[in-house]
Amino acid sequence: MDGETTPKYWLLKAEPDSRVVKGKDVKFSVDDFETVGTSPWEGVRNFEARNLMKEMQPKEKAQKHCSITRIARIQVYDRLAGASDEGLTFCTQGIAAFAEVAKAAYPDHTAWDSEHPYFDAKSKQEDPKWFMVDLAFVSRTKHFVPLALLRYIADSSADSPPEELDYLGEAGVAAIKNMDLVTRGRLSIQRVSPDAWDAIEQLADNGGWDELDLSPKKKTTAKKAPAERTISAHPRAAKQKPKPRKKKAKGSDSEDDFDEDDEWSEEEVISKTTSSRRKRKAEDYQELPATRRRTKA
DNA sequence: GCCAACGTTGGC
DNA sequence: GCCAACGTTGGC
């Protein structure tokens, strides 16, 4: 029904570090990906990421049903092995490869296998909770595009790129500043705007940032807290009675110190939690008929 | 249905 | 290795 004709772009994060879950190493780096060529992208256990995967369509399917042309183009985010000594960690993460969707979303069966690292008792075969797509490796980026570079660009107050990266133009800079990768890094599957895609692709093709100092040290100034502090002064916040925090963590002896910035940071947490909660709900409902959607009373 | 607490992720 | 951010769970 949506007669979209442009490809859709995504960024997916690989799992480059060894991590043993239930006795199995869950690592899946871009190297591994390149070796196998095509692979299911299993183990995504986040609603928002799952919903994004459900939007991805492989090329053939998109061509057959021309009303659905959500051809997925993927940028794969990885971490370079090795460089983590020498304090070079800041440039080890970034965009390492391109991929395409080989198979549209289908139930992630690893959630059903109690032996599997990604087992989730709440996912039933009759009613799968988690999905995966198959991805086909396309190519390495000619230049590894480090996250630190994107941050460098995003943190700059300038609208135009540094000289070395002139080719990005202001549109490229603006697009990078808006990337989820920069603004909310944790999401493991993200939408990428066409402009951001172009910018990343140009960076990957052209490079040119060798002379830039991408080290993160520059965070002398306070983040951007003041603005948010104002926003969080919400009527609701005033109503909150300052409930005593009960500490019932397993190690009840371990004493954290929450006091010092309680007054505003707590409010901020509240407002964040609320909004993310609202968002999660919306996303969860997204798969239901629109009529089911209801804003809260 | 709301919110505090928990656990995990990810940047540094 | 530490700590902030944040998604999810579970108690009410």
TrEMBL record:
Keywords noted in UniProt: Nucleus
Region (Disordered): 208-297
GO cellular component, one term: nucleus
Signal peptide (from-to): none
Acidic residues bias locations: 254-268
Pfam families in the cross-refs: EVE (PF01878)
Domain EVE residue range list: 8-202
Protein name: Autophagy-related protein
Organism from which the protein derives: Mycena indigotica
Lineage per the UniProt record: Eukaryota, Fungi, Dikarya, Basidiomycota, Agaricomycotina
